[in-house]
Specification:
99 residues, mainly alpha, 87% helix, 0% strand
Length: 99
């Protein structure tokens, strides 16, 4: 349910932003000069690039965090296994753990 709601919100936002990004130059076509239209077009491209970069950076940060947590869990499991093996070796040699 959460994923469906998230998808609907993103889709609606994309439609609204896309409409205004395309409609803005057409509404301003009669009032702006050619150079002003080019400036608006370049600004739109920079905005698209910034939004894309933000989503990409967020996605990469989440993937990096997930990878870091996975490595930490693997290290933790290995340490627990090593400690268990160490104490098993001590018990097999009839030594006390306090010795």
């Amino acid at each position: 349910m959460k994923k469906l709601l998230n998808t609907l919100i993103i889709s609606a936002a994309a439609i609204i932003v896309g409409y205004w990004a395309i409609a803005l130059p057409f509404h301003l076509f009669d009032t702006l000069t050619g150079i002003q239209m080019r400036i608006i077009f370049i600004c739109e491209i920079f905005i698209y690039f910034a939004v894309f970069s933000a989503f990409f950076i967020i996605k990469e940060a989440k993937a990096e965090k997930k990878n870091k947590e996975r490595k930490y869990k693997e290290k933790h499991i290995k340490r627990l296994s090593d400690n268990a093996n160490h104490f098993n070796n001590i018990k097999q040699k009839n030594f006390h753990s306090a010795a």
